[in-house]
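Design job #97: recover the sequence.
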């Protein structure tokens, strides 16, 4: 007897039963542990890093956080972005029950070793609309410059 491949839409009911059972087990674990299937570990914000001729710019996505929830520090040539995203709790409705929670919360910390080309004392940060932008200005010696070519 040949076994069907699991990705075929016309697979026998037995495969559908297996996947249905799997989904039901996932729901039980989700409800017990309070997290969605496939989402594990601490919350870590995503960061984009881009470079221009004058600076390196880091943008961290921090949805739902306030300025008071975030801290940026520099120590021993390491830039640290840290904070805490608190879980929202809805009070006053004892009959309400969560069936799925996918929004992550908890303490986070991201560390970045600064390149020697950055002027650490001139680093600045701004927080707006859930985005933390940290600007790391380059030292003058690290910026591109045109070299004059002479004939003699």
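Job complete. Output follows.
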């Amino acid at each position: 007897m040949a076994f069907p491949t699991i990705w075929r839409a016309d697979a026998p009911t037995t495969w559908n039963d297996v996947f249905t059972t799997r989904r039901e087990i996932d729901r039980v674990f989700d409800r017990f542990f309070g997290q969605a299937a496939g989402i594990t570990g601490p919350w870590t914000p995503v960061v984009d890093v881009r470079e221009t001729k004058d600076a390196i710019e880091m943008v961290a996505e921090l949805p739902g956080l306030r300025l008071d929830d975030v801290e940026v520090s520099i120590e021993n040539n390491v830039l640290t972005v840290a904070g805490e995203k608190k879980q929202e709790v809805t009070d006053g409705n004892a009959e309400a029950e969560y069936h799925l929670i996918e929004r992550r919360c908890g303490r986070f910390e991201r560390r970045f070793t600064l390149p020697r080309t950055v002027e650490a004392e001139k680093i600045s940060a701004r927080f707006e609309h859930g985005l933390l932008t940290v600007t790391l200005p380059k030292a003058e010696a690290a910026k591109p410059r045109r070299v004059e070519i002479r004939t003699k």
